[in-house]
Amino acid sequence: MEKICGIYQIKVIGEDLRYIGQSVNIERRRKEHIGSLNSDKHPNVWMQNYWNKYGESAFEHSIIEEIPKKELNAREKYWIAYYGAKHTFNATSGGEGAGSGKENPKYDPTIYTFYHKDGRVETCAQWELKEKYGVEHSCLSKVCSGKKKSVSGWGLKRITNADSARINQTIFTFVHKDGKEETCTQLELREKYGMAHSNLSRVCSGKRNRVGGWSLKKKKKASSR
Fold first, then answer.
1. pTM (two decimals)
2. Domain containing residue 71: CATH number
3. Strand partners, 65
4. Phi and psi for 164 in degrees, rounded to 5?
5. What is the pLDDT of residues 72-90, one digit of tens each?
6. Tens-place pLDDT, residues 183-219
7. Could you give the angle at the alpha carbon of 219 between the alpha carbons of 59 and 205, nearest 5°?
8. What is the Rg, in whole angstroms, of the alpha carbon atoms belonging to the chain?
9. 149 Cβ contact list (under 8 Å, min separation 6)
10. Please, is 202 exposed, middle or buried when counting C-beta atoms within 10 Å of its C-beta (0-12, 13-18, 19+)?
C-alpha cells in the first residue's frame, strides 16, 4: 500500500468528536492506534474510555489532507484549533514539542460528583465542568485533590457514612480481560489493584464497561424449557 503523508482523524460516528493526528504513513499509524486502543493502553485516556464503552465499531478513520512532511506540525495545530477543544480528544495543541498534555483537564478522566452552593449537582470529569461553567482548571484541580474546598461555588460532594458502608459491604464478581476473577467489594478490588474509586463505582452501577481491564461478570440468562 502506498504511504500517505498528512493529517488524519479518528472520529466517533454520529458525534462531532474526533482525534486529530499527523503521520508520514497514515495507514501504519492507524493500525498503531487501533492496537493500543484494543489493548486498553492508549495514552489518550478520554478516547480510550470512549473506545472501551462503545467499541471499535463506533469509530471511523479518515484522511483530512495529504501534505508534505515539512507542513505536518503546522497543519496538525491548525486542524486541532479549527475543531476546538470541545470537539477533539486531543489534550495538546499539536505539533512537536507540544508537551505531555498532563496540564490539560482532559488528562484526568476521573468522574467526580460536584455540588454547587445553590444546590446544583453535576457528575462529570473536571474538563466537562470547566467547559460547561467556565471554572478555572487549576483551581478545580485543587478542589479535586483536596487542597481547596471550592471554586466558583463548586465543591466535591461528600460521601456519607451510610454511603461508605453500603459501598464497602456489597459483594461483586469482577472479571479481568486476561481471565482473572475476584469476588469482593469495590474497596477490596480498588486497594488490591490501585484503581480510582469513582471509575470503579461507575462500572458497578453500569455507567462504564470496565476500568483497568476489570468489568462486572455478566450473569447467564436462564434457558427456557
1. 0.50
2. 3.40.1440.10
3. 7
4. -65, -40
5. 999 999 999 899 877 888 8
6. 888 878 877 887 766 677 778 878 788 888 899 887 5
7. 60
8. 20
9. 143, 155
10. buried
Measured CA to CA, the distance from residue 160 to residue 137 in angstroms comes to: 27
C-alpha span between 36 and 154 (Å, rounded): 36
Domain that holds residue 186: 170-216
Q: Is 115 exposed, middle or buried (0-12, 13-18, 19+ CB in 10 A)?
A: middle
Q: How many domains does the chain have?
A: 3
Based on the fold, state whether residues 55 and 79 are members of the same structural domain. yes
pLDDT for 117-130, tens place per residue? 888 888 877 777 87
Q: Which segment of 59-63, 172-176, 188-192 scores lowest on mean pLDDT?
A: 188-192
Q: Is 181 in the same domain as 207?
A: yes
Q: What number of residues does the chain have?
A: 225
Query: Do 111 and 184 fall within a single domain?
Result: no
* Any domain includes 163: no
Report the alpha-carbon distance of residue 82 to residue 87 in Å, rounded. Answer: 10
